[in-house]
Amino acid sequence: MIFLTVGTENFQLDRLIECIDKAVAEERLTDKVFAQTGSCRYRPKHFPYKEFIGFNEMSQHMKEADIVVSHAGVGSVILSLSLGKIPIVFPRRFKLGEHVDDHQLEFAKRIETTNKVIVAYDEEALIDKINNHNLLISGLKTYNREEKDKLIAYLKNICAGII
Predict the structure, then answer these.
(1) pLDDT value of position 99
(2) Which of 35, 52, 99, 152 has a Cα at 20 to 30 A from 10?
(3) What pLDDT digit, counting tens, does each position of 45-91 carry?
(4) In terms of residue numbers, what domain contains 59?
(5) What span, in angstroms and rounded, lies between the C-alpha atoms of 48 and 56?
(6) Relative orientation angle of helices 55-64 and 74-82, to the nearest 10 degrees
(7) Across the strands, what pairs with 68?
(8) Smallest Cα–Cα separation from 98: which of 6, 4, 1?
């Protein structure tokens, strides 16, 4: 099962939901899909979704998923990593009207260097990375507590500079 999450803020990520919906319709993706679509305007036609779900339900979907596809939101990425998943991160883009700046793109580029996540920067790469997920994760590092603490410290420093 593929679980998609776009977070709970008031920003759409229609590009992600529409891309997956089209790939399912064209049978380029054959796994079952469930999505948390948040503020997206696009409504998938080929898989079930809920706009918003609580933390416990989000955690349960991530635990049960074979593949987690997430926006580049810190909370969503950290949750999936803490549940032992190596997510595919699909950052929102400022130039596409998906956020107020490119902090998700910057975060995705930074966390990609840790070899803890897979990042897809466009729709074709996303479908390719979903279809090759098992191969791609075989070369990535496992996530441990020390590395989690380092990542949390890094994120706190970023937040301290923003606030």
Answers:
(1) 87
(2) 152
(3) 999 999 999 999 999 999 999 999 999 999 999 999 999 999 999 99
(4) 2-162
(5) 18
(6) 50
(7) 3
(8) 6
149: left (phi over 0), alpha (psi -120 to 50) or beta: alpha
- The total number of residues written for the chain in this structure: 163
Q: What total number of domains does the chain contain? A: 1
Which pLDDT score, from 0 to 100, does residue 96 have?
A: 84
| Low-confidence residues of the chain: pLDDT under 70 | 141-148, 162-163
30: domain CATH number is: 3.40.50.2000
What's the confidence (pLDDT) of residue 97?
Answer: 77
CA–CA gap between residue 105 and residue 89 (Å, rounded): 10
User: Tokens 């400022």, residue?
Assistant: 94
